[in-house]
Prior knowledge:
Layout: H1 2-18, E1 22-24, E2 38-44, E3 50-56, E4 62-68, E5 78-83, E6 89-96, E7 99-107, E8 113-120, E9 123-131, E10 137-144, E11 147-155, E12 161-164, E13 172-173, H2 185-196, E14 206-213, E15 219-227, H3 234-245, E16 253-255, E17 258-269
Parallel strand pairs: 13-17
Antiparallel strand pairs: 1-2, 2-3, 3-4, 4-5, 5-6, 6-7, 7-8, 8-9, 9-10, 10-11, 11-12, 11-15, 14-15, 14-17, 16-17
Amino acid sequence: MKFIVLILFIIICHSANAQRKHWINTAGIEVKKDVATNYYTLSKTDAKTYIYKNFLKENDSLCEEVNYPTKEILSKEGSYILYFNNGKIAEKGSYLNNLKSNLWRYYNQEGKLEKTISFINGVKEGKQTDYYNNEKPEATYRYKKGNLISLIELYDDTEASVFKEDTSEIAVYSFTDHEAEFPGGEKALNLFLGQNSNDSKESNATIYLSFNVDSKGVVTEIIINKITKNNISEEYLKRAMKLVAKMPQWEPAMKRGRIVKSRKQIKIDL
Length: 270
């Protein structure tokens, strides 16, 4: 009987200690309760994982939920969830060796999906999909080592495809007898770019984009080649690629009397 009572006592003490409130400030540093803004609890699961939960002191709302392999709270490992003040999830994903890994989901304060991003070793690698407010996909982009590289697919708000990367192995020509031409020529192209890219707040920068024009005059494979200014906003780069994706059909290139798929490059001045 005494043995059973002892076991129950140990279990109760362990549970109470696991759920003990650790008072912290906004930087996550432990402080006295009267100056704390938040508190956290730490509990151990059957999978030998410690679950860290960060709460707002004033209303006990959950702010963050993190998995750690040890109780030292040093290196994130496994599931991670960040919450808005209204209790809805802001972002959700997983960590590997304290770095973002695999697919992460990001939401707005209404709880609607805004984007999904693939990470490797803490940087964007692979696909990112942005979503309309109705949670239908707007565009899918390709990243390499954290940098935005190309547009994969663009949709309208009904989920119909506006642009799609062509992954076929049809030959692409950089030099042709007659280059692919924007309808109306170079002057019309500059007018189109000027009318659709003059809302940018960026300045003194130029972005160089390359793309293919297939045998039907459709624009495909949009890639960022060069940017003449550091720290240009990613949103502007996306708008520039979407602008090219929405171009009207070009007159395709000709080589030795045949219509061919060709490579073009344009620059957009900010």
